[in-house]
Amino acid sequence: MAKIKVFSHFEFDELCSSNGWCDDNVEALTDKAFISICSTKDVCEHHLEEEDVHWFKRNHPNVINIDFDDVEFDINFGEEYGFIAKAMTEEQGNEIYDFVERNLGRDIYVHCRAGASRSQGVFRAVCAIWPTIYDEKENYNDSNPCLTPNMCVVRRIKRAAYQKLDIK
């Protein structure tokens, strides 16, 4: 049975590195799909003060790289700080929904910076839409039990499902 697993960025990079997964061989991993969530360039530059880069440098049929910040709505830090933190868009919710739907049957590995909010939002939405992907023994992680999902992420992905499945 396919599962969904959530990681911090560090854990995800370590997993990929230790398994030798890269752009050159990721498509051969027919039982795995990867959702990589990084922060926007503005937040990296003005808030994190470091790069937040995807392990896989390009999208593949089983890899989606997507950038949005850990906020539930866009926040304009205006003249004081000079950047905007960007929430997940409706389009990005649709992209993730379509990606998961195309990759059903594969284990899905999802990460964001801490593995605590954006990726947990994806986890919650995916498990709600496709409940057979959730296995309590396999998915529950004592160190990261999905306590603080980004609810904008949950809503955007669920809204994509409702629209595509014509649920009112």
Strand content: 15-25%
Largest sheet geometry: 4 strands, parallel
* Overall CATH class: Alpha Beta
Structural class comes to alpha/beta
A few lines on this structure:
The protein is an alpha/beta fold. The chain has 7 helices and 6 strands.
Description:
The protein is an alpha/beta fold and 168 residues long. The protein has helices spanning 9-19, 41-48, 78-81, 90-102, 118-129, 136-139, 151-164, and strands at 4-8, 32-38, 63-67, 75-76, 84-85, 107-112. The protein has a single domain (4-164), classed as Protein-Tyrosine Phosphatase, Chain A. It contains 7 helices and 6 strands. The protein has a 4-stranded parallel β-sheet. A two-stranded antiparallel sheet has the order 4-5. Strand 2 (32-38), helix 2 (41-48) and strand 3 (63-67) form a beta-alpha-beta unit. The radius of gyration is 16 Å and the shape is globular.
Key terms:
168 residues, alpha/beta, Protein-Tyrosine Phosphatase, Chain A, 4-stranded parallel β-sheet, 6 strands, globular
How does the SSE layout of this entry go?
Blueprint: E1 4-8, H1 9-19, E2 32-38, H2 41-48, E3 63-67, E4 75-76, H3 78-81, E5 84-85, H4 90-102, E6 107-112, H5 118-129, H6 136-139, H7 151-164
Parallel strand pairs: 1-6, 2-3, 2-6
Antiparallel strand pairs: 4-5
Helix pairs in contact: 4-7, 5-7
